[in-house]
C-alpha cells in the first residue's frame, strides 16, 4: 500500500537562480483525453497538492519555465507525462542537479501497477485505441441528467484483478487532490466502490460509458 512520502529532492540556490524553481501546483496540469487529437485542446486541471510527489516545499527544482502535463486516457486511466522547459540548471552550473521529475512521479505510482504511466506516445496511443471498448465494472444502479448529458452511477461490490488494476490507476488522482491520500486495500471485503460516468458516443457510433 502506498503512503504519503516526502522523499522528493530539493536544492538550495543562490539569489540569482530562483527562475529554476517552479511552483508544483502551477507547473503541473492534468488533462483527460479520448483521442490523440484532443491532447492539444483538452482542458487542463492544476492539482491542489503536490507534496507527495515533490516534497513539503511543493516545488520542482532545476528547470526554467517548466510545464509538466499529465495526459490521462479518460476511461482506462493510463498516464502519459509530457515535460517542457526552456533551460535546465546544468546549463548554468555543473554542480547543481535538476530534480528527476519522471522518477518522482513513478515513486508515487501504485506498486502493483507501475505500467500506469507509459514511457512513450506510441504506447499511449495504443491505450487510447484500446479504451474504445471500455465498459464500466459492476452494475448500473442509477441514471440522472446533468447539463444535458446522461450520467450513470455504477456500483462495484466484488473485487477482481482487472478492477483492482483499474481502481489503482484511478486513485492516482487522489494524491493530487486529497491531502495525505493513500491507495485503498482492496483485500478488505467491506469495500464498495461507486463510479459516476457520462454516457458518450465514440467515433464509430458505438455507445460507450466513459468517465
From TrEMBL:
Catalysis performed (reactions): L-lysyl-[protein] + acetyl-CoA = N(6)-acetyl-L-lysyl-[protein] + CoA + H(+)
InterPro entries in the record: Acyl_CoA_acyltransferase (IPR016181), Hat1_N (IPR019467), Hat1_N_sf (IPR037113), Hist_AcTrfase_B-typ_cat-su (IPR017380)
Gene3D superfamilies according to UniProt: 3.40.630.30, Histone acetyl transferase 1 (HAT1), N-terminal domain
Family of this protein: Belongs to the HAT1 family.
Pfam families from the UniProt entry: Hat1_N (PF10394)
GO biological process terms on file: subtelomeric heterochromatin formation
Record's GO cellular component terms: chromosome, telomeric region; nucleus
Top EC category: transferase
Protein name, as recorded: histone acetyltransferase
Naturally occurring in which organism (per UniProt): Anisakis simplex (Herring worm)
The enzyme's E.C. designation: 2.3.1.48
Keywords, alphabetical: Acyltransferase, Transferase
Histone acetyl transferase HAT1 N-terminal domain location: 21-179
